[in-house]
Amino acid sequence: MNIRWLSWLTLCLAPMLAAQPHTAPWTAFGPGSSPTDALVARVDTNGMLRTVFPRSSLPLDNQVWGGTVDIDNATSIAIISSTVYPAAMLFIDPSGSVQKSLAISPAMPGAGYLQDIVLDDDGTFLVVRGPGNTVPAALLRVSRSGSVTTVFSSAAVPRPRSIVLDGDTGDYYLAESLSRRLVQVSRDGGGVTSLGTWPTSFWHERISYQIRTGMILHPEFVGAGPFSIWQMTPGGTVSTYVTIPSSLAILDVRPDRSSARSERMFATTHQLSGTFYLIDDASRSVTSLRSGGAPGQSLVPPREVASCRTAPGQWEFRLHFEGQPKQPFAMAFSLAGMRPGMVLSDGRKILLQPDVLTYLSLSGRLDPVLTGNLGVLDPDGRAVVLLDLQNAPSLTGFNLFGLAVTLDPSAPVGLRTIADPIRIRL
Q: Residue 274: its pLDDT value, please?
């Protein structure tokens, strides 16, 4: 099979394809209120839950306040806070075994609780630390070897609670609980901009970024219900995304696959009730999927592509299309951004704005700068794309965008899956 010709043909004829939301399970994290609760679980789109890491695996004094998924798109990373144990990151494989633990700060309460964590585009981790008796609140960067540096710490943001990356620029959005503000922090930590104020106060709610619109979403937790999910534009304008007619407060809401014809949102309540909601983006209809026995602190959607900087100017893109062994794939790149991209005739979206780089990357003309972006996944549905810009220092500081698809001759026009776009800062 000629992968290059098939990938080119696919992008040209993609309007004939059917819509496809995620089918792989999500990862959920929560503190757990009893030994039988899950601290880490996998939750499918029907609300079925499989415990990965039970509450009984940790001393009761430890609390899981959030988590993310590593660059292999399989390993769960839970952030642990305690009053007697050091704050740490636990790397947990799909079978529930702890692969390693990285200590972030000394034992509590003096060091401040870990509030949230995200994977940055270079493969390092950004951890939000709340204020303690001996240290101020801070945004920390944790390397893959465990070294910790401070990205940002300021009295102007005294109680940061949640973090999300700006998909267009790579800057950091922080939710501040005392003032209810959303602030934007530059990647070097030197620039801080207050964007807007949420209508309600923060407890441990998580903010999220909607790739398709650039909106920031914030669920409502404080109050007696019904509870709203708010959305804020990059300019700071706040409006109601949806109101959930329930007495169960919302802690997290996350968009599903951005390429789908009608995007979906998943929301979760506090772990004591453990309810998951499915929200249709077009109609804003709300469906309750599950109630009870589920971690409800934070959600992480399935991810097909993650990036990691392996050396100055060198990058790896780790692909993992679960359930698609030995599937042909293609990954295209652009310097023009994600939007508006292409809206297909069936309503699906390819959120990559094509430019000259897009066509060069799909034609194979960037070898040896770009290698492995046209090929076949391994038996586990994985592949690694390599980018080497050591000899192109003039590109430093630019944002590069990429998007991967899988190809299947038996599917309409040969395209099976459109992954979410990814952005790196060169």
A: 65
Question: In Å, how far are 31, 86, 323, 383, 384 from 304, measured between CA atoms?
Answer: 27, 32, 11, 10, 12
Tracing tokens 């709340």 back to the chain, one arrives at 130
CATH number, residue 382: 2.60.40.10
pLDDT in tens, 168-198: 999 999 999 888 999 999 998 988 999 999 9
Look up residue 51 and give its two tokens.
């415990």
- Domain match, 191 and 316 both: no
Flag whether pLDDT at 158 surpasses 70: yes
Q: Which of 274, 300, 326 is the last residue of a domain?
A: 300
> 216: Cβ–Cβ under 8 A, 6 or more apart, which residues?
164, 173, 182, 207, 208, 209, 210, 231, 232, 234
In the chain, the number of structural domains is 2
308 & 160 share domain: no
The pLDDT, as a whole number, for residue 321 is 94
pLDDT of residue 263: 86
Partners of 364 in beta bridges:
none
108 and 138 co-located in one domain:
yes
CB 386 within 8 A of CB 423: no
Q: Could you tell me the pLDDT band of residue 1, with boundaries at 50, 70 and 90?
A: very low
Residue 381, SS3 per DSSP: coil
My answer on whether 200 and 289 are in the same domain is yes
- Dihedral angle over CA of 391, 393, 398, 403, nearest 10: 10
Backbone region of residue 123 per phi and psi (left: phi > 0; alpha: psi in -120 to 50; beta: other values): left
- Would you say residue 237 has pLDDT above 50? yes
Output the average pLDDT for the chain.
85
Condensed to tens digits (0 to 9), the pLDDT of residues 11-29 reads 443 433 334 555 678 898 8
Are residue 88 and residue 105 in the same domain, yes or no? Answer: yes
* pLDDT band with cut points at 50, 70 and 90 for residue 112: low
Q: Is residue 335 a contact partner of residue 7, using CB atoms and an 8 Å limit?
A: no
Are residues 194 and 326 both part of a single domain? no
Range of the domain at 61: 26-300
Residues β-bridged to residue 201: none
Q: What CATH number corresponds to the domain at position 240?
A: 2.130.10.10
- Residues 182, 250, single domain; the answer is yes
